[in-house]
Amino acid sequence: MRRFVISILLCLPACAADADLILHNGKIVTVDTAFHVVEALSVKDGRITATGTSAEILKAERSARTKVVDLGGKTVLPGLIDAHVHALDAGLSEFRSTLPVLDSITAIQDYIRTAARSRPKGAWIVVPRTLPPRLKEMRFPTKQDLDVTLDHPVAFDGSYVWGANSLALKISGITRDTPNPPGGEVVKGPDGEPNGILRNASQLLKGAARSEGFSDEDKVAALRQMLQIYAAAGLTSVGDRAVTPMEVAIYQQLKSREVLPVRVVLTWRINAARPVEQVVSEIRASSWTTNQGDDWLRFGTFKVTLDGGQSVGTAYQRMPYGAFGRQLYGQTDPDARGTLFIDPEKLYRIMSAARDKGWQLTAHVQGGGAIDTLLDVFQRLDREKPIAPTRSHVMHGSFMSEDALNRMQRMGVIVDVQPGWLHFDVPALKRVFGLENMRYFFPLRSYIDRGIIVAGGSDHMIGHDKNNAVNAFNPFFNMWASITRQTREGEVIYAQEKVSRQEALKMWTIWAAYLQFGEKSRGSLEPGKYADLVVIDREFLSCPEDDIRRIQPVATVVNGLVVFGRL
Ligand SMILES: [Zn+2]
Predict the structure, then answer these.
(1) So what's the pLDDT on residue 311?
(2) Residue 212 binned pLDDT confidence (cut-offs 50, 70, 90)
(3) DSSP-derived 3-state class of residue 315
(4) Mean of the per-residue pLDDT values of the chain
(5) How far is the CA of 69 from the centre of ligand 1 (A)?
(6) 468 CA distance to ligand 1 centroid (A)?
(7) Ligand 1 center to residue 3 CA distance, Å?
(8) CB 137 within 8 Å of CB 130
(9) What's the CA-to-centroid distance between 355 and ligand 1, angstroms?
(10) Spatial distance between the Cα atoms of 204 and 221, rounded to a whole number of angstroms
(11) Which residue from 220, 248, 112 is spatially nearest to 168, judged by alpha carbons?
């Protein structure tokens, strides 16, 4: 104790000049309100103490023990924030073996053939989750496609819609006479027999393992590994957008062992497919609420899943999926508009209970019909008590409209977007709905011009590779997609909705931090904020536009410590 006091006293005259770390001779993009670019910054106890010219910072902040790093002109950005990931599922997806890139039905068939060779006859083969709009063929695989093995039951995980081969149907007793489960469909071919496509009906498959029996230890290790991969991609904070009590416990283990490489904000997704009284009493009984926790691990948002997915033809749209929907999603009814999982009155009761517990609110909404339903409920809540201070938001909001944009602006509702889908999914979706109906597909410029805060996210759920994952979580790719709006067919989709580099960077820094109630401590490089930053290999603000997606992190720093690469 005495020694501690003495050291403090000794330090008094020189304290200001006692940085742990100085980065100088760089292009440090601060993302402060004036978007200053500075040469140098200093760090002490995990926080930024000063920014300025190299000469100023070295003179004022350096002591004999300061680690001084000459950036050699390299660019530094605030630590990037992905507002939307699913880290545990993604971590487990390649925890035991590497996933192949499944970008065509042919690749899926190769995967099945390889798996069949190494498994005993009769053992299930589950093709990892793959989204049909991303397949080269742009159609949903049928039992004929999956019948490349007749000795193994095969299930294809297309998220809400699954595919099954002939043996899987047989083992599960699924025939032309099987009744459709509530809200689901056993899709039939022209011959009246099941064609292998099970829409919201994968529960009919008997024996297909959904998770491969991972132990708690596996889960802790897989989650930690995934978070380290995020750090290597330049991310310093993520929002995990659908945690269960089990996942919360795993995060808390990493936190208590002090091995979280990045900061995490948790979204509690409640199972709303139960009687409303049950859902409401679970919300009331829970001890969780927004901002509980600390700057490493905290609760952010309360979430329900309101509709399905645009990638599988179950997002609840304002218009029908039509004829191309049949090919892409195996849809039989050309008038189908998708599925709204929660009726508006039930949604209101659930959301008002969560609001009363102090939660920030959101719902997974992709189709326009679901967006409108959520905004109706937000409007009802807003009339009771202004919703803006809660920073409640639309999650995804893929099929926006002018009217929905205006309502969000009026209420102060913000948004969590996935611009990577512009690149990957527009080629298929424009064939479904027509280009004219893609006008408000991720209308980034329209949000920003209305003052609606836009948080960038990937919705990463499968795979460890930042560019090949579903969804690609490379933040530089996602910022590039926001800036260029270029699809994988090379087309620019509604150029008037492009954003600038500065705006894209804000989406992955200060605006994502705002959504997470973290903008006072993260999201920009300013004195007093955490030293969360990424050093990159080329100039973000001035490199050729197509190079943005190829930027690589050189080092990622969280709380003043290097978590990836080296300084
Ligand atoms: Zn998600």
Answers:
(1) 86
(2) low
(3) coil
(4) 94
(5) 38
(6) 17
(7) 51
(8) no
(9) 21
(10) 32
(11) 112
Alpha carbon separation from 426 to 306, 327, 421, 448 (Å, rounded): 22, 16, 7, 21
Q: What is the pLDDT of residues 455-497, one digit of tens each?
A: 999 999 999 999 999 999 999 999 999 999 999 999 999 999 9
Instruction: Indicate the pLDDT class of residue 333, thresholds 50, 70 and 90.
Output: confident
> CA-CA distance, 338 to 436, in Å (whole number)?
20
Q: How far is the CA of 486 from the centre of ligand 1 (A)?
A: 22
80-85 and 235-243 as β-strands: parallel, antiparallel, unpaired? parallel
Contact (CB, 8 A) for 427 and 133: yes
Pairing type for strands 194-199 and 75-78 reads unpaired
**What's the rounded Cα separation, in Å, for the pair 91 and 437?**
36
Q: How far is the CA of 431 from the centre of ligand 1 (A)?
A: 24
Is 478 in contact with 458 (CB distance < 8 Å)? yes
CA of 19 to the centre of ligand 1 (A): 40
Residues 92/221, Cβ–Cβ less than 8 Å: no
Q: State the DSSP string of 503-523.
A: HHHHHTTHHHHHHTT-TTTSS
- Give me ligand 1 centre to Cα 457, in Å: 9
What spacing in Å lies between the alpha carbon of 198 and ligand 1's midpoint? 22
Question: What percent of the chain clears pLDDT 70, i.e. is strictly above it?
Answer: 96
- Output the CA 522–ligand 1 centroid distance in Å: 23
Asked if pLDDT for residue 173 goes beyond 60, the answer is yes
Parallel, antiparallel or unpaired: strands 454-456 and 561-565:
unpaired
In the reported structure, the alpha carbon of residue 4 is separated from the centroid of ligand 1 by a whole-number distance in angstroms of 48
Strands 393-396 and 414-417: parallel
Query: For residues 422 and 483, what is the distance between their CA atoms, to the nearest angstrom?
Result: 11
> How is the chain split among helix, strand and coil, in percent rounded to 5?
35, 20, 40
Given a cut of 70, is residue 7 above it in pLDDT? no
pLDDT at 183: 79
Q: How far apart are CA 138 and CA 135, in angstroms?
A: 5
Expressed in angstroms and rounded, the spacing between residue 320 Cα and the centre of ligand 1 is 24
CB 330 within 8 A of CB 195: yes
First and final CA of the chain: distance in angstroms? 34
* Cα 321 to ligand 1 centroid, rounded to whole Å: 22
Could you identify the residue written with the tokens 């960077």? Answer: 505
Triad 452, 509, 463: Cα angle to 5°: 105
* Position 13 pLDDT exceeds 50: no
Q: Residue 427: name the closest of 444, 441, 417 by CA.
A: 441
Total residue count of the chain as it appears in this document: 567
Rounded to whole angstroms, the Cα distance separating 542 from 277 reads 55
Assess whether the previous peptide bond of 195 is cis (omega < 30° from 0).
no
- CA 84 – ligand 1 centroid, Å: 6
DSSP H helical ranges for 48-102? 54-61, 87-93
- Kindly give the distance from the C-alpha atom of residue 265 to the centroid of ligand 1, in angstroms, as a whole number: 14
Token pair of 201, please? Answer: 């009906």
Q: How far is CA 9 from the centre of its chain?
A: 48
CB 267 within 8 A of CB 241: yes
The rounded Å distance from CA 445 to ligand 1 centre is 23
